[in-house]
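Run log, item B.
One chain of 369 residues. Sequence copied directly from the ordering sheet:
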Amino acid sequence: MERQVMITNHQLLALVVISTVGASSLYAPAALAHYAERDSWYLILMGGIIGLFNIFVFVWLDRLFPGKNIISISISLLGRWIGSMVAALIIFYFMDVSTWTLREFAEFFIIALDPTTQQIWYMIACVIMCSYGVFHGLEVFARVSEIIFIVILFTFLGIYLLLVNQYHPEYLLPILENGLIQPLKGLLLAVSWFGDLMFISMILKHVRKTPQTPFYAAGAVGLITCVLLMSVMACTLLFGWRTTSAFTYPSISLIQNIRLFTNIERFDAVLIVVWVMSSFIKITAYFWSALRGLTDLLRLQHPHMFIVPMAIIFVICSKYKVWGLIELASLYDKKAWYFVTFQLFIPTLLLVIALVKKKSLKAGEPHKS
């Protein structure tokens, strides 16, 4: 009998926060400034509200179908044929996100660290680390995430506090100059970043449930919102929204402004470390989710045999997904609907179908006299 894999509420929170704040904290300030200008914080707050709804969709599905992940739930609700097709699409999405994040990992290193090293070597190094984590299983990289979580949280907090004396509060004025509706043109993009927590649909069945589990899930979204708020507001307060929107990675330029004792600088290395740890957890979580999904869909007896072939596919797909950084940076904006479809719309549809079926079953039960 297969040993039951279990993680704690703390580990659930750490996995969700780390996997979401890494890439989004780099892209969010510039991307959202195009839509909301100095009011990017407003998009983060609205995205956080929808992100809270998103995570409770998964929590609700887990309560309706205890012991099942979104792959098993799809098959249970929609039948073997349609359910399997939906499950296969979700597994494809897990793999697709893994490859996008892997490409981001390589591009970031080329820009921020060493442009002379070939991109493929960064991808290979990253996918080897992640494959090792997937091989050892959810419990292992969930324990690692607890340590990384503390490091990332205090790093972000330290970065934004060290820059306090350089902020210009007047850059935030006038607040909501264009009203409440116009900035919402970028809402889908903000929601897609919060939707990076979708892998929770595969790991909730492995969480050791307590009455506090939903609060930990909600707390994860709250922490993500706080980190992204600090990120967009720090960039706006330091550079202004026009300069922020011109950067590809505003957070790197932000951290380069930190000086301690007049001669200690180059803190961008700290951001690189945080990015590496965050990318490792995110790719590993989605890699594991894809492998777990394939195992459940195809009833694989030896899923570990598929780790190396999947890793090779990830590297090949990542290499040829886009031509370069500019195309990659604009992808999340132009294709936000694609990500939100899998992150929010499909799970919400599954929840609606489950509730309708549950209600119809109750209505069909004979009333006791």
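Observations after the first pass:
- Residues 80-112 form the longest helix (33 residues).
- The chain is about 75% helix and 0% strand.
Flagged for discussion on Thursday.
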